[in-house]
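Example 3.
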Amino acid sequence: MKAAAAAAVALAVLIAVALLAPQWLVFMTMLVLAKGVVVLGLVVLMRTGLVSFGQGLYFGIGAYAAALLSHQFHIADAAVMLLAGAAAAGLAAALLGLLLANYREIFFAMLSLAFSMILYGLLVKSAALGSTDGFNLHARTLFGIAIASGMERRVFLLAGSVCALGAALLVHRLFGGHWGRLATAVRDNELRVAYLGASPYLVVYVNYQIAGALAGLGGALVALAVGHVDPETAYWTTSGEFVFIAILGGTQSIAAPFMAAAIFEALRTVASQYAPNVWQMSLGLGMLAIIMFLPTGLWSLVRRRRAA
Amino acid sequence: MSAVLTTQALKKSFGAVIAAANISLSFDADTVVSLIGANGAGKTTFLNMVTGYLKPDSGRIIFEGRDIVGLSPRQITGLGVSRSFQIPQLFQTLSVRDNLLIAESIAGADNPQVKTDAALARFELGSYASQLAGLLPEGIRKLLDVAMALSSGSRLLLLDEPTSGVSADEKFAIMDVVMGAAQAADVTVIFVEHDMDIVARYARRVVAFYDGGIIGDGPPDAVLHMTDVRRYVIGEEIPHAAA
């Protein structure tokens, strides 16, 4: 109930932002939501004991799936694009997960990185998809209703907010019960899980799919926000950014990924404006500080305050 | 009484080492059997074959009328064979309650919370319920490991050295709790044990392993007094002329 109330408040704030905020803030909020959703998926994996350095794969698939709908099939509905992004990435994760769910630790991390770089390589080489430049997309309707010119991003933000909050609530629900405990159990001791009669492989496989679909949703959201896709979405630095945000926020709460993504985007915007040459260094120093002083992420500050 | 578990001519070797020479055993329902033998005699290999961790080179393992050779540990556990480990296998970052709750939920209990409360009481773990499993003293870790194995649906409980690593003054208390719970749950118990006091007190039947084979099988009084068992399992010095 507490989660539902928090989500309702968040939705109210997001609606206010979508309707009243200046365009740049609307744009930034969309990026925050998109990255927060991807990182939420990463947190699902981390709770299962796995770190993926290749979520860019599904982020890229989601973005390109949404963009291709507009570009190749002239389907310009934002809702369809968001769903297609999540579905395409979830499907790809269902396929690759069959293999990846067998691997753990560094092997899992490197294999996921390898697959994302394969997609990057394919996208860079395919002239039909604009190679390194990518291509533009246009969404003009939501659920078939035409969007007034100039209002596109505001409407996308509304749609994105509903998707992101819905996803967060679903994950919260799923991980608040048996499935969440089971994921931690797999992280702690797979032998015992098998000797209690459950399949660690299945737990990893399902959570990998959830993470993939969420990354796809995030990719589609970014594609809508930017109006353009390029191979950078699947590049390893993009994947690394998601891991960065996940560590920044910590894995203890469903809200942490969104909070961390907001801080990350705000930092990046401010830093690249006032210190364009050293903004990455400042992020690096920030990460060092987090790991040294708040190893369980920024969310532990919220916890500490509540406990006090 | 009908046999709950039967093994027929089980063979297993690791290179030149024969861990199971030709093991044919039958275990009646609702009994308590102890497997004894020196290190490397083949006791744990036997448990590992029964639970599907190791596949025998040849032979059959029949559990409740069904050949379970080739099934995975997960499938065999699902059929009702559960086990505890010499080194307790717990979920270290979760509380004692959550450890049990996971076990009951996986086992498909109708009401896992109620079953968990019952297990906490039965194994006298109530005062540890909210502690993390990784921080427990060894005796309690052992108890929790058995409690998780003995979740709903278990009909054959295999215990691998339930009192190893436990202090001498704790071991009987722990075994009393374990055996009481096993009896209440109406399960058959097979336990591997090095401590002959424990064996004599809790086992109704003793099977002595030596070099992958069986050198004694019967009631504790009889088996524990056999010359070969005293020499090879208990490790007494017995002059060969007297044998």
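The interface with chain B takes residues 178, 181-182, 184-185, 187-189, 191-199 of chain A (CB under 8 Å). The longest strand of chain A covers residues 135-136.
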